[in-house]
């Protein structure tokens, strides 16, 4: 899929959400980004970034590419910042691939998304289809035995993203229980991986609005939480901006 189609698709979804719920949820999301929520997002993202960098380092080593963990963490922060600020949402990964090889980056992104999808599917299917959940859990255990670092790092990173979404929900004033919010968070995180987006924006907000509406919490509240999550995630990547600026100055 061409970068232009990705951006246009994400912009179309975002425009549809704005037409549906109006501008107020976007304004409310920015107002809700208080110091506590921002600090929590930055702390959680630091953990998830280290986990992702660790996963990438291990996969790169197996593919014959050596990336010291400190360099991997710095590169991952830069990658996240570029992904969160440039339209296609993949420029940061392209930058990592140019500097450290394409195959390790593809393996890193692919394995992370695969583990997230399996784990989220298991949780979401646990109630209506326990047999399907059992199959997914068996697959996850099998992967854990073969690729423990990849699975553990991916699970911690995925859990971190979900926790940031829950932080956003509470900061936005959502009063639903954590049990009710968890499946919504998992759905939104899966939608965030859809490549039709503008620096991560688009499907995430669309699915959040629809899912919150279906759960009786209101489409506007879902949009507010998703937009606030986007703001928190963006701010949490700012260490990457510092690292990127240092690299440019040194060059």
From TrEMBL:
Query: Has keyword Transmembrane?
Result: yes
Its membrane topology is listed as: Multi-pass membrane protein
Membrane-spanning ranges: 33-54, 117-141, 147-168, 180-201, 207-236
What's one GO-annotated cellular component?
plasma membrane
Keyword list (alphabetical) reads:
Cell membrane, Membrane, Transmembrane, Transmembrane helix
Main location, first listed in the record: membrane
The listed locations are: Cell membrane
Query: Superkingdom, according to UniProt?
Result: Bacteria
Extract the InterPro entries matched here. L-PG_synthase/AglD (IPR022791)
Q: What is this protein called?
A: UPF0104 family protein
């Amino acid at each position: 899929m061409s970068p232009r189609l990705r951006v246009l698709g994400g912009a179309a979804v975002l425009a549809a959400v704005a037409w549906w719920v109006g501008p107020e949820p976007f304004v409310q999301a920015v107002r809700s980004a208080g110091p506590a929520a921002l600090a929590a997002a930055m702390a959680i993202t630091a953990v998830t970034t280290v986990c992702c960098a660790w996963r990438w380092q291990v996969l790169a080593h197996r593919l014959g590419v050596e990336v010291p963990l400190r360099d991997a963490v710095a590169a991952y922060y830069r990658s996240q910042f570029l992904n969160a600020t440039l339209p296609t949402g993949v420029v940061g990964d392209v930058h990592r691939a140019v500097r450290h090889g394409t195959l390790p980056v593809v393996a890193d992104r692919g394995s992370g998304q695969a583990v997230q999808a399996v784990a989220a599917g298991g949780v979401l299917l646990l109630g209506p289809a326990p047999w399907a959940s059992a199959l997914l859990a068996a697959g996850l255990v099998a992967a854990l035995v073969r690729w423990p670092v990849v699975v553990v790092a991916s699970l911690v990173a995925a859990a971190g993203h979900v926790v940031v979404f829950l932080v956003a929900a509470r900061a936005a004033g959502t009063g639903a229980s954590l049990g009710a919010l968890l499946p919504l968070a998992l759905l939104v995180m899966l939608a965030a991986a859809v490549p039709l987006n503008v620096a991560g924006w688009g499907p995430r907000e669309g699915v959040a609005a629809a899912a919150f509406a279906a759960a009786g919490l209101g489409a506007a509240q879902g949009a507010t939480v998703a937009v606030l999550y986007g703001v928190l995630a963006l701010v949490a990547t700012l260490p990457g901006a510092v690292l990127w600026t240092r690299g440019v100055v040194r060059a």
